[in-house]
Fold this sequence. Notes:
- The protein is an alpha/beta fold.
- The protein folds into 2 domains: 24-142, Rossmann fold (3-Layer(aba) Sandwich); 159-234, no CATH class.
- The chain is built from 9 helices and 7 strands.
- The strands form 2 sheets. Strands 2-1-3-6-7 form a 5-stranded parallel β-sheet, with helices on both faces. A two-stranded antiparallel ribbon has the order 4-5.
- Helix 1 (32-45) runs antiparallel to helix 6 (159-173) and helix 7 runs antiparallel to helix 8 (199-214).
- The longest helix has 17 residues, at 179-195.
- It is globular, with a radius of gyration of 19 Å.
Amino acid sequence: MDTTDPFAPNYPAPTAMRPLLGLTVLVIEDSRFACEALRLLCLRSGARIRRADTLRAARRHLQVYRPSVAIVDVGLPDGNGTDLIRELAPSNQRPDVILGLSGDVDSEALVMEAGADGYLSKPIVSLAEFQDQILSHLPHERHPAGPRSVPKEIVEPDPIAYRDDMAHVADVMEGASDTRTLDYIAQFLGGVARSADDRELAHATELLAAKRARGDSAASEAATVAGLVQRRLTEKIAI
């Protein structure tokens, strides 16, 4: 008697070199630079990637597709990623793995409390760390058979993606004076600058965030950040 379930999902078998083969990763992240890093990590691991840059776009996507893995950034233009994690965690359409993502070390507790399976800290460049975070939350049958060597590869996103992020911030900052926009800029740029090891911009963004956290006027800090962003937009990138 044939006991094969015709409706069971048919995943390509993962291999030692491509341990995430057969998985679809939905990345909910507004930074092009961070997304480029995750694209490279998925490519090296055998996973397919889809991207949403807002909560609204993510929810539209999830109405149509069920990804194997959802990687949710905490700070998004239209809200906090932990709200989406709280929606996904108890859902019948829950992805197999939900990971929170942030450049703020204080966010790990928040995403775990919201129901995430794990947490990725920006910058995300280690292939081994990326694969292990996902595999550790998958059932054993979704793991590659036999021994798997730990990859030492570090991905390097295209610097043009970083420039795209600077252009995005410049557009957001133009004419922006409300506190919510400044908070978003501080959060967004903080993660992006740390991911790109741009220490000057990261420091300026930290000063902006600190002023905002105290409720003080941050006009001077915002002007400094805007100037650094414009400088990076005018710098030539070797292609």
